[in-house]
Q: What sequence folds into this?
């Protein structure tokens, strides 16, 4: 399968200062990710996975190098454009779900549509539709605290999809789930990747998640160790 | 990004902030009620003094004895209001710490710094509205009791309605302004949070 490029990473490095000494969290990483591709990023903690994630997601800026998303150098974006990128182009899924506890499932999913300027009724309607499509049609008005871990992650996935982003960034999405629930979440994500053509980039330790992917990027000490086809 | 895409930019208006702020207040009412109580007490003190004063003046006009509120009482009130403001700043700072992760998440979902700022300010100003109203009512009770015992409860029937209404509007407005001012620093801190740090923060 071939893909046209959606993300291009050129020679990025990210240094941190810690107690006066410099740490290279990322050191000269090159990577190209195709539209609709499913890429797993694997590596021990401290290998630079999360840093790479934050750079792709526009949450952090590289010390050197460039990240292009759809041909745009994202380090050149101003605060407005960056917020736009995070809002419309990228959907985030976290290990700890990070739902807003005071809002219901529907309101959580509708939150990104608020930032996207979608009228409230339309946003809520869209949220209900997405929640139903991830199998939570009977949990629309529950708060996160009233949902199981797997259900919470489904809400988080629905939220990531709310503005129909081109890219989904999932940081250890099965890390806090038991085996079976984790399997369901993987199937859901994989299904979305295939049916909607969303580019899925997942940092993971989960072997089943790695197996489902098109490519596996192995990271070590801030560098790409090897890239395998899935 | 194309021009067409640029047109539909990130939005988060006053209405959205108010709705979300209201949700936070209702669903985390314990914390909000501390803030509301804090500002309400300050405002109650203020309105008791001003209402008593206005009742005394009405009483004097009607030929009664000339009584008044002592200057030191105004000073006490001033201090009470400052204490309220500091208390609210403190409580809102704790609120910001508690919500680090949520703030980080919102930034990932497309919230900009000023949206976060707006959210916290609006939430606090709503609390100020509630606190101002509650404070005014408490103050009214306080004024009626304190003047009632000194000039007699029948004298209270001479209540200058217009002044009391002005005072109601003034108290609520002052309460909202004070809550807003008290929350400037906590809201600014929340807004300036770096999303990566906010997400990784463990309370």
A:
């Amino acid at each position: 399968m071939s893909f046209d490029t959606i993300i291009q990473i050129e020679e990025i490095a990210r240094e941190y200062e810690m107690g006066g000494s410099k740490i290279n969290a990322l050191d000269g990483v090159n990577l190209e990710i195709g539209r609709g591709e499913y890429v797993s990023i694997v590596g021990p903690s401290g290998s630079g996975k999360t840093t790479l994630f934050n750079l792709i997601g526009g949450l952090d800026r590289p010390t050197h190098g460039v990240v292009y998303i759809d041909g745009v150098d994202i380090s050149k974006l101003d605060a407005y454009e960056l917020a736009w990128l995070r809002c419309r182009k990228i959907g985030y899924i976290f290990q700890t779900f990070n739902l807003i506890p005071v809002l219901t499932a529907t309101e959580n999913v509708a939150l990104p549509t608020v930032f996207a300027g979608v009228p409230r009724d339309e946003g809520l309607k869209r949220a209900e539709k997405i929640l139903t499509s991830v199998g939570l049609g009977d949990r629309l008005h529950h708060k996160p605290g009233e949902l199981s871990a797997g259900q919470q992650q489904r809400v988080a996935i629905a939220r990531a999809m709310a503005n129909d982003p081109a890219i989904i960034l999932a940081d250890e999405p099965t890390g806090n789930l038991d085996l079976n629930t984790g399997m369901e979440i993987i199937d859901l994500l994989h299904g979305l990747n295939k049916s909607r053509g969303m580019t899925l980039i997942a940092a993971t330790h989960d072997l089943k998640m790695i197996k489902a992917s098109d490519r596996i990027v192995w990271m070590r000490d801030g560098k790409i160790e090897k890239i395998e086809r899935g | 990004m194309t021009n067409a895409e640029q047109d539909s930019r990130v939005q988060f208006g006053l209405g959205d902030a108010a709705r979300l702020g209201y949700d936070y207040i209702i669903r985390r009412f314990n914390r909000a009620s501390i803030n509301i109580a804090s500002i309400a007490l300050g405002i109650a003190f203020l309105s008791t003094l001003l209402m008593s004063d206005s009742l005394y003046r009405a009483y004097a006009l009607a030929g009664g004895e000339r009584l008044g509120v002592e200057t030191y009482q105004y000073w006490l009130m001033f201090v009470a209001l400052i204490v309220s403001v500091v208390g609210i700043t403190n409580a809102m700072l704790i609120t910001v710490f508690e919500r680090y992760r949520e703030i980080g998440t919102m930034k990932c979902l497309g919230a900009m710094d000023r949206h976060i700022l707006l959210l916290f300010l609006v939430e606090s100003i709503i609390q100020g509205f509630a606190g101002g109203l509650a404070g005014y009512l408490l103050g009214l009770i306080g004024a009626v009791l304190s003047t009632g015992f000194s000039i007699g409860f029948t004298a209270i029937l001479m209540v200058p309605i217009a002044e009391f209404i002005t005072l109601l509007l003034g108290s609520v407005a002052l309460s909202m302004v004070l809550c807003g001012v008290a929350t400037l620093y906590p809201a600014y801190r929340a807004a300036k949070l770096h999303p990566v740090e906010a997400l990784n923060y463990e309370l």
About this structure: Chain B touches chain A at residues 1, 5-6, 8-12, 16, 20, 23-24, 27-28, 101-102, 104-113, 115, 195-196, 199 (CB under 8 Å).
